[in-house]
Write a structure and sequence with these properties.
The complex is a heterodimer of chains A (73) and B (195). By secondary structure, chain A is mainly alpha-helical. Chain A has four helices and no strands. In chain A, 63% of the residues lie in helices and 0% in strands. Chain A starts with a helix and ends with a helix. The model of chain A has no long low-confidence stretch (mean pLDDT 93). Chain B is globular, with a radius of gyration of 21 Å. The chains are: A mainly alpha (73), B alpha/beta (195).
């Protein structure tokens, strides 16, 4: 993979156009490598908006974390 | 929170993000038991001295009451593949599925919260039942931010990327040094032949 390809893929990943799974399929060995490439370009790891195919299960997950944090206080 | 509700880490990315941001402890804040399938653990820590690996091992050892490594058949297969020099890509997630199924079978009341990387959870439909909830690293951090337990999720993510960049620079510097040395050795060898 050339440096240009690598940079293009990382930019696409940061923009949520491709997934971490796709990065792995295209030659990124581990996530530290991804974090390093994001950092070198001044980008941060992408955060998924609350939509897509798993929203209901994610909302339950967030509610569970909220509840856990509340009861631990 | 009940022991029958567990957080299962499905991939190395949340571990690496949090360890590089020096924030692994946030995983413990909701008070859940944390399960790390063996294949995820091995993938994150198998290279001794790799960035974050030692700290992940240390963190698990410091929290053995709450954090456990879950043995799986996939993990055994992973060992075999490593010995044979074959790819282990994707085995972490398979091990997480196996760990999840074992856990749900062990207790009819059991429920699990699967922790995923953000882009994977956004795009791929995860097969989940009523007893399985999902969360991404970003979701997790946003809840901590709302509860004012961290400065902000962006701060943690930026810190992880900045630390990653430093590691990458160090790696490149070592790589450049090795390349220079190889070139010098090569040139010395060539000169020797000419004499």
């Amino acid at each position: 993979m050339t440096e240009t390809d690598r940079e293009r893929l990382i930019r696409q990943y940061a923009a949520r156009e491709i997934t971490w799974r796709e990065l792995r399929e295209r030659g990124f060995e581990n996530y530290v490598e991804v974090l390093g490439a994001l950092g070198a370009l001044g980008l941060r790891p992408p955060v998924a908006p609350m939509d897509g195919p798993n929203v209901a299960a994610r909302e339950r997950g967030r509610a569970a974390i909220r509840e856990g944090l509340r009861t631990r206080r | 929170m009940s022991e029958s509700y567990r957080l299962i880490v499905t991939d190395t990315s949340p571990l690496f993000t949090l360890v590089l941001a020096d924030s692994l402890d946030v995983l413990l804040r909701p008070g859940l038991s944390v399960s790390i399938p063996d294949a995820v653990y091995i993938e994150a820590t198998r290279v001794r001295g790799a960035p974050g690996a030692d700290r992940i091992v240390e963190w698990i050892n410091d929290h053995l009451d709450t954090v456990r490594i879950i043995p799986t058949d996939v993990g055994i297969d992973q060992q075999r593949r490593l010995e044979e020099g074959r790819s282990i890509r994707g085995l972490g997630e398979q091990a997480a599925i196996e760990a999840l199924e074992r856990f749900l079978r062990s207790d009819a009341e059991a429920r699990a919260l699967l922790l995923f990387e953000d882009t994977d959870i956004e795009r791929r439909r995860a097969i989940v039942g009523e007893r399985v909830d999902l969360v991404s690293t970003g979701d997790f951090l946003r809840e901590l931010e709302s509860a004012r337990l961290i400065q902000s999720s962006d701060y943690i993510l930026d810190r992880a990327a900045a630390q990653g960049r430093n590691i990458e620079r160090q790696r490149q510097a070592v790589s450049d040094l090795e390349a220079r040395k190889r070139l010098q050795d090569h040139l010395r060898g060539d000169q020797g032949i000419q004499r």
